[in-house]
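Quick one:
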Amino acid sequence: MTDFASARRHMVDGQIRPADVTDLRITTAMLEVPRETFVPAQSRALAYLDLDLGLGAAGAATRCLMKPMVLAKLIQALEIESTDKVLIVGAATGYSAALIARMAGEVVALEQDEGLARIAKDALSGVANVKVVTGPLANGYAGAAPYDAILVEGAVETLPDAFRAHLKEGGRLVCVMGAAPAGAAMVYRRSGAELGGRPFFDASAALLPGFAKAAEFAF
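Output:
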């Protein structure tokens, strides 16, 4: 039987802390939130490995939980305050929502796959400041906008204009720009009508549905 508490400690000590994740709220949450409960039963022994963990048995075959290190660094870049309202785009089974709920005032977890959303709702049923909603990921969720911070939990090749409109002035958005195996973690900040961004580390993640570049045709 897997010792999941020990596996969580090894994940934090071996993957998270060496990656310059210095926010103690994140490391504490990752030590306490049981990641294995957010993955298919047959994959629980893999829950703490340094990989994108497929959720094929739980929902859409191409969906994954992000590598723990990549997720932790993205969350840290959001600079979440205790009063912030945070939108998670592509929340999948709800692991990131469980982490961010310990740091933010309110979390809206958006998922378009009904199977994954059901798992997230069950897993987060006792977390009072998280609301799981369903809808197309690329549309964001205007129903609770504006947000102080947005986590796009996956890779994107294009970022829809809706996300700028969803952010408050000074609001932050993080994502991985570019499909695997190559990409860059980006942090964006809204200033007036502009959404300025910068890369802050090389990263890869599974491409989220609805965020691929439109096909170009040559004649």
